[in-house]
Amino acid sequence: MTATADGQAPAVSKPPRRRARAAGRLLRRPAFVVLLLIVLIALFGPFFLGDPLELGPDTLAAPSMQNWFGTDQFSMDIFTRVVHAARLDLLVGFIAAALAVLAGMPLGALAAYRGGAFDTLLLRVSESLQAFPTLLLALGIVTALSPSIPVLVMIIALVNVPVYLRLTRSAVQPLVNADFVLAARCAGKGQFTILRRHVLPNVSEVVFAQFSVNVAWAIQILAALSFVGVGVKLPTPEWGAMVRGGADYMIYGQWWVALFPGLAILATVLTLNQVADEIRHGS
Amino acid sequence: MREGMNGPVLEVGELVKDYVTRDAKLRQRVARAVDGISFAVQPGETFAIVGESGSGKSTVGRVLLKLTDATEGNVHLLGEEILGMPERRFRALRRHIQMVFQDPLAAFDPRATIRSSLREFAGFGGGRSRAEQNRAIDQAIRDVGLPPEISWRRPSQVSGGQLQRLSIARSLLVKPQLLFLDEPTSSLDVSIRGQIVNLLVEIQDREGIAYLLVAHDLRVVYVMAHRVAVMYLGQFVEIGTRDQIYERARHPYTRGLLEAALLDEPARAGDPVRLTGEISEEQVRKPGCRLTPRCPFAEARCDEPQQLRPTGDGRLVRCWKAVEVPVSIGLHGSGSSSEGR
To answer: CA-to-CA distance for B188 and B324, rounded, in angstroms?
Structure first.
């Protein structure tokens, strides 16, 4: 209770060392390593490459030693742009999913813990949000507001909140009357202490797995919004917008303009989903 | 402040607990798990409640710890009425009444070390320094016969018997006056049960704690209890000292239960009683004796409401026949009453 930092207490027993092993275990999971690689490329890749908006000599040049992924209709290097775009897409995906967790997880836990009218109200609201197809809902809100990056993040987060709310709620529900929670009540602990110390740590695994899936999902929504033209606009490097820009050239045989950003989306989304699987089945 | 009081630790009056559920058509269904129970637990004694699964015995304890709300009745803990008390005020009183769970593995947070689970109790109400908490935890673990180092493990890394010892150590950290033991041995291996029972008896002799024991293992109850209440479908059907219950049971249900337990001693008075069928909640809605479909002595008068009636030797029995015409149910006279344990 009291926060006296009394580390040298004359306790007979001392805790054994651990921790280093946890990091080692993570690195043995293949998808996690790939994800780490993607993140590192997004973080440091742009430092080694030029300006993504720099124009080259040729438009729509096929992949070559100079332009690994070719150039687009504006003569910009597609490889440079795909790497730069990773920053924006991952950041938007991550922040949107994080905001959704921050809002959805406590609300879901509280709904399960409190029950009653509060629970019912939250459930109905999230159901009505989920009744709309996610993309349509996002599309509607974006067109109503002006599409800027912060607005996009907020909207993607909002459509993901019900997912966490329901997930956390169903994970917490069986714990509300678990014996170890009752034991904590016997120790005189209050609701919030119990929620923070005993309930949430025990659902974190499920929620983190969902988080990984959700980052992937957020990236897809962003790409889709950009693809239909209400998200990020060219020439800003963003995967969805680049696929959109390149789609027109597909039929003329210039496949590389749309293919490479598309592959980037595919690789990232698959990796994130695989990481979710590893979280769920590992440990 | 309450050290010198001589009244009962716990006094329960006409306790009722209903579980309200809704069926598929959203009609309300009320299941009465506890139906008008009264008893008192004296300082330092073990009061046991026995009965089959579904008799409502575990519910009683959970209501007393305010882990679930009561429907009616009153409960006095050390003289203070607690049922109507708001949770915040009761929190300080929790130190007087603690609980040991049936399944020790479920009773510890799987993610926390055992030590941190114990620390929550060692730090009850604040005011203890971390060093004092550590000393208290180490001592509590030694008191249940384990090395303090074990507390750095997680619940899954400790055997069931050890974990139940740790669970007992944990609940004792707040120095309660009453410990509710909810089937403390039934999830353990048979070879471990005896050790836990001995440990609990030892602790009681040393600390003078009162136990409220809920169990269906009649051997455990015999070793631990001073007084025994037999519960059937939410009601007590017989309350008496341990020897009254085990040697000269009056109620047909008590006798059937003892018969089914295949205890070889002590020798019991009366003819053997065989209960047929199974516990059925249908009976709760009928006014008469709830045992009638299973009782070999049932007759028309059993369908009238039955009260707990004294038999003259200090016990209470909820069976008119056992009180008025014991001979007709195979009981030939009864010896003098004797003390429990």
So the answer is: 42
pLDDT of B24 higher than 90: no
Could B152 and A16 be called an inter-chain contact, meaning their C-beta atoms sit closer than 8 Å?
Answer: yes
Please tell me the predicted confidence (pLDDT) of residue B288. Answer: 85
Model-level pTM?
A: 0.78
Q: What local confidence, expressed as pLDDT, does residue A277 receive?
A: 85
Q: For residue range A82-101, what is the model confidence (pLDDT) as tens digits?
A: 888 888 889 999 999 999 99
Task: Please answer yes or no on whether A198 and B112 come within 8 Å at the CB atom.
Answer: yes
- Whether the ω angle into residue B43 lies within 30 degrees of 0, i.e. cis, is no
Task: Establish if A134 belongs to a structural domain.
Answer: yes
Looking at the domain assignment, is residue A63 inside a domain? Answer: no
3-class DSSP state of A144: helix
B219 and chain A: CB distance < 8 Å anywhere?
no
Residue B94 CA to residue B65 CA, distance in Å, equals: 8
**A18 found inside a domain:** no
Mean pLDDT, residues B200-216 taken together: 93
B17 sits in which H/E element: strand B10-22
Q: B205 in the Ramachandran plot: left (φ > 0), alpha (ψ -120 to 50) or beta?
A: alpha
* Residue A169 predicted with pLDDT over 60: yes
Spatial distance between the Cα atoms of A55 and A46, rounded to a whole number of angstroms: 16
User: Which one of B103, B131, B152 has the shortest CB-CB distance to A9?
Assistant: B131
Do B274 and B256 form a contact (C-beta atoms < 8 A)?
A: yes
The phi, psi pair for A64, rounded to 5°, reads -150, -175
Would you report the helix, strand and coil content of chain A in percent, each value rounded to 5?
70, 0, 25
Comma-separated ranges of CATH 3.40.50.300 domains in chain B:
10-225
**Which residue of A1, A15, A179 is in closest CB contact with B152?**
A15
Asked if B107's CB is within 8 angstroms of A11's CB, the reply is: no
Q: Which domain holds residue A236?
A: 29-46+68-281
Interfacial residues of A (vs B; Cβ cutoff 8 Å):
1-2, 4, 6, 9-13, 15-16, 178-180, 182-190, 197-198, 201-202
| CATH topology for the B10-225 domain | Rossmann fold (3.40.50)
What is the rounded average pLDDT of the residues A268-276?
Answer: 89
Contact B127 A1 (CB under 8 A): yes
Q: Show residues of chain A in contact with B212, CB under 8 Å.
A: none
What pLDDT is recorded for position A94? 92
Identify whether the C-beta of residue B253 lies closer than 8 Å to the C-beta of residue B329: no
Residue A213: pLDDT above 70? yes
Pair of tokens at residue B11: 């006094």
CATH at A147:
1.10.3720.10
DSSP annotation of A41 reads H
CA distance A161 to A157: 6
Residue in B closest to A182 by C-alpha: B67
Instruction: Using CA atoms of B174, B176, B180, B184 in order, give the dihedral in degrees to the nearest 10.
Output: 60
Integer CA distances (angstroms), B84 to B71, B73, B159, B286, in order? 11, 10, 39, 30
Residues B106-155: pLDDT tens digits?
999 998 999 999 999 998 877 788 899 999 999 999 999 999 999 999 99
Q: Which residue has the higher pLDDT, B54 or A210?
A: A210
Q: Does B309 touch chain A (CB under 8 A)?
A: no
Most confident of A3-17, A229-243, B58-72: B58-72
Q: At what angle do helices A78-114 and A239-250 cross, to 10 degrees?
A: 130
Q: State the total domains in chain A.
A: 1
